[in-house]
Amino acid sequence: MACPAEQKPSRTETDLKKAILSVIAFFDLFDYPLTVQEVWQWLGKKSAPAEVLAILDHLAGAAGGSGADDGTQAQPGSGRPLAARDGFYFLSGRSLLPAARRERYAASARKMKRAAAAARVFSWLPWTRFVALGNIMGARNLKTESDLDIFIIAAAGRAWLVRFFCAGLAKLFGWRPRPGKHRDQICLNFFAAADGLDFSAFLLPAADGQGADDPYFAYWLANLRPFYDAGGFYARLISANPWFREKLPNWRRPAEAQPERPAAPGKSGPAGKFFDWLEARARRWQIWIMPPALSARLNQDTRVRADEKTIKLHTEDRRADYRRAFREKLAGGHLHD
Known about the structure:
- This protein is α+β, with helices and mostly antiparallel strands.
- The protein has two domains: 11-95; 106-319, no CATH class.
- It is built from eleven helices and eight strands.
- It has helices spanning 11-28, 36-41, 49-60, 97-123, 159-172, 215-222, 233-239, 242-247, 269-288, 292-295, 319-332, and strands spanning 82-85, 88-91, 128-134, 148-154, 186-193, 225-229, 304-306, 310-313.
- It has a six-stranded mixed beta sheet, with helices on one face. A two-stranded antiparallel ribbon has the order 1-2.
- The radius of gyration is 22 Å and the shape is globular.
- The two termini are 32 Å apart.
- The relative contact order is 0.12.
């Protein structure tokens, strides 16, 4: 009797394998190993956690779905693209990453306290609607010497007033970064008004000019760490960016997000008109005093953008660098064999 031919993986299984390897390769850029849950929720393909676990253990050679080993599996030359240890999955040959992740998690406690304190201060402003810590690739994955990037949503028509007062408060408390001092300082470089939450214009364009190709931005949005949410603005932010759900269909709001609190009532009538007038002048003044490094790039590309609804001031936007390194990592190894 002839032996049955070995069953080839289906197209769906092959696509899921590629998606899993891609997400692990991307977070490898930030020295961040992933749990099964993290791989699943940051995956670019709709799937079930059990499917993801089965493929992860196959790629890492982990027996019994344990997601753990003694560090001897899937080393360079083993033919396995992944390894697993202590519940974390990572690229083969990167067995030190789980320990590094635990160290960073512990070291992030001080930074999270500073960010939470700043969020409380900024939330005192009557027009602040949402405050979060951004640019975190993974839970509490903060380097010791890094500053803290704060993202703020303001009431409609009040983004520039909120930035003006937040910058003043940060300077008053000595939180602003300055030459030679960046560690734990507060970086206020991204504000949006409540009616300007569609960020599709900020996505890096694809090389062929057709659509967008910006793997970092989706993970930036997924890894926001909210400290203040006055009325479901995190959910509104996600809803305003349908491309995000296309990129990360399994994503769920992080459990550690702060409970929502009701927003302060808006102002109308003469008071509202006065603040409209003040908002316009705050915008003109802040653009006028903008440092040359920012003003020279203003609205030239996706790095430095400023209008009535959004303020994004990143002179050192590294998304293109991350995208290039990510593509090189995928193309240069055996990840998609």
